[in-house]
């Protein structure tokens, strides 16, 4: 990015929109898993536009699908007319969702998808009481922000919902961190029962939870926790919303949806990001009985438009035809095992965590559990200098986040791993 473009950015865009890096960059081209900035510098991309460019850059099958739709002259019609691409994609998503008798409503973003799920759930249950999880992130609109358990992303205390909070799966700090996986599940289920008995009027609408907390730094609970929670929810008729905005489409490697690691089926599932591979596409899928709980006319002007759903169909077809879920498991293991072996034992690394191609490294002050966002930022900058783009996150800003395209090759995984290990070890003052 030129100084002039940076100055122009600052002159017309709000200051609360952050820019990465001490010297912000403008990305001007991309191919596969690599992008190039305005200065001609090439980078291996391990963040994919915040886990959105799921298939990578300049993919012929996706480009050609969009070009075919553009050639018809129809970019937008609104959902007042039949949209073939939308119906076809809805059929595929309903079938893959694991939810019986599913219906799909398309939106433009994960925020809108979660907002729609909350609208449906509160209508269905005739209650504005909702359970949410600490350290979570669900979006920037009022209801979505109201169920976001991270102060850094809560721009307002105003909330249309009455929210009660459950413990996250944090294994580094917090009341449940010192427990074994089974003990943590038991304690979290006991906590849910107590929250329902003490903080609610009983008629709770839903629990919304991310299988892996994205903005929260890829924190996730032990497998099986959602099953424990779901048993309690079912006793009270409370709906379960799985926020799969970041975990969906096989990114975790072991399952197509993050919720499947827990052996449960949600009532509602929200999706976004990767399904559009950069085109604005998101939505909510749920049981017909639940999703039909809207007592007035409602639609999304741009949600599921012909262009975005043409891209979405091509993305999902490519994902399945190339078995990218298996690739996420394979190359994700290279990264996870390599990071744990090379830097997992350092005093400044609290945890290497995540699943598939959704990995995080949490940094702390050596020998403590005190977050070290300054070290995290140095590693972040050093990785860019080495030719690798990553992300940051976590409640304390001390987690390096990696969500590469699911098309990442084994050679690229090892290349990125080498850059990451060098950046971490050098910034931690460890000899090569």
TrEMBL record:
Gene Ontology terms for molecular function: transaminase activity
Sorted keywords for this record are: Aminotransferase, Pyridoxal phosphate, Transferase
Q: What are the names of the required cofactors?
A: pyridoxal 5'-phosphate
Name any one Pfam family assigned in the record.
Aminotran_3
The record's InterPro entries line, in alphabetical order, gives: Aminotrans_3, PyrdxlP-dep_Trfase, PyrdxlP-dep_Trfase_major, PyrdxlP-dep_Trfase_small
Q: Could you tell me the EC number(s) of this protein?
A: 2.6.1.44
Domain of life of the source: Bacteria
Entry's family note: Belongs to the class-III pyridoxal-phosphate-dependent aminotransferase family.
Subunit-level organization:
Homotetramer.
Stated name of the protein: alanine--glyoxylate transaminase
Question: Which species expresses this protein natively?
Answer: Micromonospora parva
